[in-house]
Amino acid sequence: MTNGSTGVRVAWFNCQAGVAGDMTMAALVDAGADPEVVAQTIGGLGVDGYALLFERVQRCGVGATWANVVVHDHGQAERAPDDHVAHRPASDVLRLLDDADLPERVRDRARAVFTRLAEVEGAIHGIDPGDVELHEVGALDSIVDVVGACAALETLGIDEVWCSPIAVGSGTVRSAHGAIPNPAPTTVAMLREVGAPVVGLDTTIEVATPTGAALMTTLATGFGPPPPMAIDGVGYGAGTADPADRANVVQVMIGVREIAETSDGTPVTLLEANVDDVTGEVLAHTITALLAAGAHDAWIVPIVMKKGRPAHTVSALCDPSADAELRAVLLRETGTLGVRATTIRRWPQQRDMSTVLVDGHEIGVKLGRHRTKVEFDDALAAAEALRVPVRQVIDRATAVAESERRESQAGHETTDS
User: Are residues 362 and 223 in the same domain?
Assistant: First the structure.
């Protein structure tokens, strides 16, 4: 990375052969996400009765990783016949995520995915999102796929997700409701909601599943060709089907998108909405949804509006290219009657992710030019296991990280000389 620039870790998904939850998770593992860390993170859900296997396969000559999630319920696979599909209410899935032992960004991303699914399904069926029964998507294998994909993104330190046009099939597919159009109404609604471009394939296979579409439409900052970046990883996630005429894989490219640091800074959009009739729980969820949708930052400030009414300003900072999607999130989540925008500038600083060991416990750290910041959730987990104050773990992790950085810099200087 050159001086005078800062890097953002990016994952660009090539979904022009389709996309599914298991394919997304597998592609990230194929690109370098540690499968053991992914599996351990999924284990934080606290559920059993499933097995997750990653296997090397070929799809039309393309080497890829296949994520095989095998779920058993009283000896029977939960992937039941089409007329007997296991399902869960959306509220149960969200409660499962809230109660799980997951890294904060993994939980936030996964929760945003299932929240979008519930809202879209609720609109289609004309019911409250919390009452939606997530059929195929509510099955345990789909929950594992979503949490696993979010865990893999976190393992790779991905800050931004980008996506190509998404392939869809034709004809009909079987569902819990019987035969429905392909692509499924839920998939189409999610694609339409964010204006995602699509490309049609001459196949009756459901190449774009609701789970895959939910991941991309929720997590992607934008759609189209890869953003400018220096590629440092690539992976291929295989689908279960193996058609003879095309490689049934999702490709992901991992890299760093450099943002030039100039005296003028980088233009960003500040979105704001004043609300006086929204509960604290909804406000907190709105922040989560804004961050999951690609906001650089989001926050809430208490204010006093006309007639002395207490209220809040909800603010989000984002790239100008993402302001339409972020405005939609603000409108949808808060019910505000208006959003205002201001173009401002910012000077983001370079930061890298690393991991250090404190008495055998892995602690994530962010390394900036002038600061080392320890991931609090990791430090808290280690502190509880070691039965020491969390401040002590933070101090020790900071010291280890800065010592390793000094040693690394000294090594580079020796090599250069």
Answer: no
Tell me the whole-structure pTM to 2 decimals: 0.64
pLDDT in tens, 49-75: 889 999 999 999 999 999 999 887 544
- Contact by Cβ (8 Å): 52, 36: no
Query: How far is the C-alpha of 293 from the C-alpha of 285, rounded, in Å?
Result: 12
pLDDT < 70 regions, the chain: 1-6, 73-87, 125, 128-138, 175-177, 259-265, 348-351, 409-417
166 neighbors 183 (Cβ within 8 angstroms): no
* The residue type at 208: A
Q: Are residues 94 and 209 in the same domain?
A: yes
- The count of other CB atoms within 10 Å of the CB of residue 260 is 11
Residue 380's Cβ-side half-sphere holds a number of Cα atoms within 13 Å equal to 7
Number of compact structural domains in the chain: 3
Does residue 29 contact residue 69 with C-beta atoms inside 8 Å?
no
- What phi-psi label fits residue 76: left (phi over 0), alpha (psi between -120 and 50 degrees) or beta? beta
Q: Which of 292, 8, 29 lies closest to 158 in space, CA to CA?
A: 8
Question: Residue ranges of the alpha helices (H) in 349-389?
Answer: 376-386
- Quote the CA–CA distance of 137 and 21 in Å, as a whole number: 10
Q: Are residues 292 and 341 in the same domain?
A: yes
Q: What is the DSSP letter of 156?
A: T
Please give the torsion angle defined by the CA atoms of residues 116, 118, 124 and 126, in that order, rounded to the nearest 10 degrees: -130
Report the phi/psi class of residue 60: left, alpha or beta, with left for phi > 0 and alpha for psi in -120 to 50: left
Strand intervals (E) in 239-339: 249-260, 266-275, 297-304, 310-318
Q: CB–CB of 382/359 below 8 Å?
A: yes
- Least Cα distance to 22 among 70, 78, 63 occurs for 70
The pairs formed by 372-379 with CB atoms below 8 angstroms and a separation of 24 or more are 372/398, 372/401, 372/402, 372/405, 374/398, 374/401, 375/103, 377/103, 377/104, 378/103
Give pLDDT tens digits for 325-367.
889 899 999 999 889 999 888 876 666 778 899 999 989 898 8
